[in-house]
Specification:
The chain contains one helix and no strands. By secondary structure, it is mainly alpha-helical. It starts with 22 loop residues before the first helix and ends in a 21-residue tail after the last helix. The structure holds zinc ion (ZN). Zinc ion (ZN) binds next to loops. Zinc ion binds next to loops.
Amino acid sequence: MSKPVCAICGKPIQPEYRPFCSQRCANVDLQRWLTGGYVVKASEDDEPLPDNEDEN
Ligand SMILES: [Zn+2]
């Protein structure tokens, strides 16, 4: 059983800032999400749709 802790700094989560311990850590996570960790598919816009037109 592990208590829920802030994923950013590991401190106990504050209910008003769930799932973080503070607004600051929430911002850190947001920035990380926007800038680094997550791959935003912006340049991969030419992904062809599956051609399932076999309506026989
Ligand atoms: Zn934190």
